[in-house]
Amino acid sequence: MRKCLFLVSLFGLIAIKAFGQSVTVDASIDSLQILIGEQAKIKLQVSVDANRRAIFPIYKDTLIKGVELIDVAKQDTQYLNDRKRMMITQEYTITSFDSALYYLPPMKVMIDNKPYYSKALALKVYSMPVDTVHADKFFGPKAVMNAPFVWSDWYGVIACIILFAPFIILLVYLIKRIRDNKPIIRKIKVEPKLPPHQQALKEIERIKSEKAWQHGLAKEYYTELTDAIRTYIRERFGFNAMEMTSSEIIDKLIEFNDKEAINDLRLLFQTSDLVKFAKHNPLMNENDANLISAVDFVNETKAQEDENAKPEPTEITIVEKRSLRTKIILGSGIAILVAAIVGSLIYIGLQVYNYFS
Parallel, antiparallel, or unpaired for β 76-80 and 62-64? Predict the structure, then answer.
């Protein structure tokens, strides 16, 4: 009994080992019948252990005489049984130009230097059916026909011809500019600056026309009015009245002007300080009086204009030498235009040559 069990186990192990080392080679064709010139695919599949090496058959131009090989696809490997087995697939594309029944012999695959063969295949190649009864329907080759003229084929040529003249004109202009090397002349318009008193009176006139105090904006009104006066003082007398207090400005102006004009200005500054810091609400006639005081102060302290002074220019001409950057830009533009013109000529020539050849 023990001997029998031993023999059964031994045969089982041998069978398992043999199964693990088994090799299967299978070949199939997707079409058994084709017309002359049509194609068929032969699929060669090899199932083998993953640790073994398989070498597929290599053909040159023909599978057999009369059956030509067109293409050999890349091998496809698929692993099975936890990567212990693998399925390798190779496809061959074939065709034939002779009608016949072809016998495709078994394909040989080398597994670890040992040959294995697939089954044989057959391929039937048919010729095209020819109507031999109606021979009058057969015609010989026709002469070469000229293609009809179509405007759309010449749009590119027409565009090149249209752009050719402007390209030439621009090229000549750039070449002339770079050869002349003339200086660059720029004209800049200059807005003449108003004298300080004119600028101040203009600003006061704007404040007057807005009548901010009538809309309850007394603080804004006096802020704008005193700022206009401070700006005038800075431009006229040369000290920074914008950063000074009212009393400091008055003390500084005493050194330059009569006391009567300064008294009017002192009253304006006092009212402005009361409005801005003490929430004082001045009367309408008081607002008008302060505005008049500002105008009188500007008129009484303005600088005397020189009648012989030359008017400031409204346009300045600047002459500059042509910079290296400008020369590089002109040179690049010339190179681009030359390339465009040469390319256009080549394109037009090729199109005309192809049309008449």
Answer: unpaired
